[in-house]
Amino acid sequence: KKMRLLLITLSLFLVCVSSEFDPFQNGPYKSMHKTFFPILTSELNHMVDVFVPDTDQVVESPIIYFAAGLGALIPGECYKDLMARINSHGISVIQPSMLGNNPVDNYEGIWMKEIMDWAELHLREELANAGLQDGLILDHNSIFPMGHSSGGHVAVEYLKHQCGNARGTILISPVDGFDPFGLIPIDAVTPGEYLNYALPSLILMAGLDNVKGINIIGDLVPACAPTELSNKRFYDAFPGNTWFVNSTYYGHGDVLDDFYADAVHWTHFCAVADENHSKDEYRRHIAGEIVTFVKYVMGHEDCEVLKFIEDPSLMPVEATVFSKQTVLDPSADICDQTECKWQEEPFPHQ
User: Fold this and answer.
1) Cα separations (Å) of 6 from 9, 15, 19, 41, 302?
2) Which residues, 6+ apart, have CB-to-CB distance to 342 below 8 Å?
3) Helical axes 279-298 vs 258-267, angle rounded to 10°
4) Whole-number Å distance between alpha carbons of 185 and 121
5) Are residues 154 and 71 in contact, defined by beta-carbon separation less than 8 angstroms?
6) What would the pLDDT profile of 105-125 be if each residue is shown by its tens digit?
7) What is the pLDDT of residues 212-221, one digit of tens each?
8) Sign of CA dihedral 92, 93, 96, 97
9) Torsion sign (Cα): 40, 46, 52, 57
10) pLDDT digits (tens, 9 = 90+) for 77-114
């Protein structure tokens, strides 16, 4: 009897250990990637890459709407590894691309609402026709606008027009404006002002964002994410709860799949991590931070999981972190979940 009791106790312990949340390891779900083209898909006006958990188990999945680099011009093929890691934890990603459109219009972000409306009406059926298993339930009431590089501008501009069903926003090395030279004044952020919406936000900076990839011709070519146009510029403008994680030794394009990240390296388009720092580990880190943030905001995990965002010693790569609580209610408990707050004018500084 004692031996049986010992075995039962040990089994329960192993179950608890194995089920403990670890955002930096792949979750239980396989990923399905499907690209939908407007010519071939009913009522769709843009090319859309969709990455979803593929399972026969019922999973209610919040949705990240992702605006990629170059103002949502980079296709989903370049981010497959990152997205598969996110999908493995039950989170879906919809990535529209604005290929062939006026690039200035891309940055206004309003067009993302068209994609959301199409997805709510048609996406689940389209995925079923493409062979997705039956378990996925897309939660259209829980969305997370996310952007990489100048795609961060697009995500912010969408939220400046409306909260919609946004629960939080995620920016990976965000860059403001149309170009890194700052020549075309279509900025999403006005330095010294808060934005006109407040919701939990996560900013994931690459430490080499502001380092030039091309430096053989002096100062003629700017960094991919100049200091004055990126990262901290957005952090300072967010009036809601905001976390900032800086991955010290990584570059602006290192979040891309290896082939495309290597292309950034070969062309010296942006500064990149050296050979001592694994890009695979960086993507594992970025995915883990995104998964943690979504799970925290959704209440799928308790507030303790914020340790994976706030404690660099738990991260797969070297990083520095800082955060701030909302200026709208500084006394509020960080664990309390709040709805997006929106108004016509920027929130005032207190």
Assistant:
1) 5, 14, 20, 58, 30
2) 159, 162, 163, 196, 197, 198
3) 120
4) 36
5) yes
6) 667 788 899 999 999 999 999
7) 876 554 455 6
8) negative
9) negative
10) 999 999 999 999 999 999 998 765 566 666 778 889 99
